[in-house]
Amino acid sequence: MNCVELQNSLAEIEDASTAEQQAHLKTCPECSALVGELKLIVSAATDLRGANEPSPRVWNSIEIALRQEGLIHAPRAGRSLIPSIGSRWAWARWMVPVAAALLFAVGIYVRQHSISVQLAQNANRPVVPGTVITDLTAGLDDDDLLQEIAQQTPGMKTQYEDELRRVNEYIQDAQGIVAANPNDEEARRSLLEAYQEKAMLFELAMDRSLP
Amino acid sequence: MSGRTIKLVAIGTLIAGTLVAESRKEYHFNVGSKAGVSVNNPYGSISVKPSTGNTVVINALLHSDKVEVDNNQNGNHIEIQSHLLPGADATSGRVDYEILVPSDASVTLHSTTGPLHAEKLHGDMTLEGSGAAVDVRDVSAAHVHVKTVSGPVTLTNVQNGHVEVDSLSGEVTLDQVNGPLVQVISTSGRINYTGDFGRSGEYRLTSHSGDIEATVPDGTSADVSARSVKGEVHDDIPLQPKTHTWFAIQEGRAFMGTMGRAAVSSTVVLRSFSGKIHLRKRSAK
């Protein structure tokens, strides 16, 4: 299993508990950090009320988008995306749109570039613990997003560059607070909200207007 | 023919040409209770108001022939899509909608430019748009979800609502908004709240670098905690301090306490990383 296959498999087996996933995580610090960050997001959601659960339309839209990207497949008998999330992660259900949006953005990048090429390019950079998720969401996908904006709505590129810069600063500041106060639930929630802001930026930016 | 006459004829031709390019469309749909109406309009305004009876009425003003309106009814769900044709841009592709829906209908509005407006409804509503100004007023017992990148958001008189607003840089203004959950998340936008935080509920106003200002009247009951990592925090209202706090109260950077009656109060959380936070008392008129 390579990095792309592991990330694709997270959509259906969120906790990376299969033998194949575990074998890959033991040898890949980047994917291991990604799974760790996703688990952190999910664990922070225990503090949030069930009233934050999104409407069924949100789930349907996310499921359609993930199928189109090939990140999920037709449900096996007795299993589907929504019941899978509901049965095990019911208390963190509302967080899945955020994680799904991040996975969606990663999937877009995988379609256009090779993760292995990027990791090879990153090999000479020191990997700072806790920052890989930032690289995956802030560095790699930002370029793709800006390229899409530049192609579809060039007049918006500068605005989106500014918005991306601000939201990345938000994430970095929130990560810093969590790193300094790992037991501060408010800090973790702030990090969650920062990721949510970035996911929303991607969501609205990807909504193309022109034919 | 004099020069003045020629100019008048030319101006009249231009105006006539504009009027001819614009066209109006009207659609009527019969629906049941709790219908769903979704409108995707890349460029232009969408305004939604309540209708009489179980009818959805769509009035569309198309600004050119480079856009057409696709409409579809699937049972109790209506879908309206502004379909941009090749060569359309933000001007020629503009459609302005005025829509009437049953007051219990769920509404989803999407426009990049907006503005988006909804009033006097009590069904769930979702309003999204990158730069769209969003205005929601006189709504009760509804889930209100708003997402903008830079568009300003104004919510007025939203009672007993489940409100979630996400705006990266747009200014968010809440006036008399209360309910079991009122949550605003912003990256750099300013958040203004005016009201009494209801009788109970969770109110969370968060901005990374934007300022947060909450103005409340006398008699407001709420457990309030405010915290800014780098910004200033001001409190004009005397609070009964908490005996136990889960974060360090640094003077000028945080405060936590209860105002009014603790037994009947909402929970209010004000958070900013570098913005200012100000809890003000509304001056009596």
Walkthrough of the structure:
- The complex is a heterodimer of chains A (about 210) and B (about 280).
- By secondary structure, chain A is an all-alpha fold.
- Chain A has one domain (about 5-205).
- Chain A has ten helices and no strands.
- In chain A, helix 6 packs across helix 8.
- Chain A is globular.
- With about 280 residues, chain B is mainly beta.
- Chain B has a domain at about 150-285.
- Chain B has one helix and 25 strands.
- In chain B, a hairpin with a 2-residue loop joins strand 5 and strand 6 (about 75-85).
- Chain B is elongated.
- The interface of A and B includes residues 163 and 186 of A.
Short description:
The complex is a heterodimer of chains A (211) and B (285). In chain A, 68% of the residues lie in helices and 0% in strands.
Q: Got a strand count of chain B?
A: 25
The spatial strand order of the largest sheet of chain B comes to 5-6-2-8-10-12-14-16-18-24-20-23-22
Strand content of chain B: over 45%
The largest β sheet of chain B comes out as: 13 strands, mixed
The general outline of chain A is globular
Over all CA atoms, what is the radius of gyration of chain B? 23 Å
Compute the average pLDDT of chain B: 90
> What share of residues of chain A is helical?
55-70%
Low-confidence stretches of chain B: none
Largest interface: A-B, 33 and 44 residues
- Tell me the structural class of chain B: mainly beta
Order of helices and strands of chain B: HEEEEEEEEEEEEEEEEEEEEEEEEE
